Amino acid sequence: MLNKLFAKPIELQIGEQLLKFFSIRDFEFCLSGRTSVPSRKITEMVKFTPEQLKKEARTIKDIEKRFVSILSKSIEDPLSINRNIRELDPLIFSQDHNWRDIISSMNTGGDELNPFRRVALVKYMQYLSSRQEIIKYLYSEKKKFMDEPGQRENEAAENTKFKDTLILENTLFEPNLGADNKTREYERLPKGEVISLTVEPNAQVEILLSKHACKLVAGETLKFMDQAGRQYELRKGRNIIGRDTISNIMIDPSLRDVSRLHLVIEKIDEHHVSLTDMSAHGTYLPIQNLPQKRG
After folding, report:
1. β-strand partners of 194
2. 279, 286, 245, 252: which is closest to 265 by C-alpha?
3. In degrees rounded to 5, what are phi and psi of residue 261?
């Protein structure tokens, strides 16, 4: 559990500081304040050209794919996260908020640090998501400026029209599943965090993959219903939902806002699952179905 107390505190050398943590919850709380983007970084990004912003967004996407793969493997094999994080080049981690030092500090410990490694990777992905949101906003504003009449003639370097790319499009939306559902509120699952969920007998729980309505359906067996109404029986253990061909349940490849590895559903029994969102555009649950985090 996140609030499990250790008989001996975990010590991590972060820069010149030696920090002690008596529980994973303490560590998670410490990192939660490091998921925002420092004002200094924002000031630097404001000066980027649209092409530089696109390059930055692609770089973040590539890094996220590697992290998603590591987290996905760690669900099935918890010990793998130690080896896989050690194989990462420390230089891919930002120096903002001492992130590079935080990750490097965990390369000296053994498997007892694996829960901390997972939390650190999840929180760093949330930091990357914050950077992506700023990139999308800045790109949108710069594109608006360049699309104004007369601007292109004044900017020789911008003599071709910018192409909208999926990685920079606005992903914020208000879920709207029809007249009967307009008043329902949804909340995005925190990326990379394992969330437990109970599905009552003969009940259904709505899940939005980005803006596409899917369901968990509890009958004689627990099934996943995709956006087209097709039902798939969930197997015991890990079930990957996404557009990639390695997915256990493959979503229509034309739905570009659904990630290749979008959601991991770990079936515990016919009424209990854990959910791990790995996507760029989010997985959403109705607020009344929001579960508790699992440590």
Report:
1. 276
2. 279
3. -120, 90
Question: 19 forms bridges with which residues in the sheet?
Answer: 12
List of residues 6+ apart from 32 with CB closer than 8 A: 123
CATH classification of 179-289, choosing from 2.40.160, 2.60.40, 2.60.200, 2.40.30?
A: 2.60.200
What's the pLDDT score for residue 285?
92
Structure tokens at 159: 């003599």
Question: Would you call 295 exposed, middle or buried from its count of C-beta atoms within 10 A (0-12, 13-18, 19+)?
Answer: middle
Residue-wise pLDDT for 64-116, tens only, equals: 888 888 887 887 788 999 999 999 999 999 999 999 999 998 888 888 889 89
| 68 HSE (CA, 13 A, CB side) | 22
Longest Cα separation, the chain: 68
Tell me the C-alpha distance between 108 and 86, whole Å.
9
DSSP state of 239: E
Q: Any idea where the domains of the chain sit in the sequence? A: 5-156, 179-289
Count the helix, strand and coil residues of the chain and give each as a percent rounded to the nearest 5.
40, 25, 35
Other beta carbons within 10 angstroms of residue 248's beta carbon come to 16
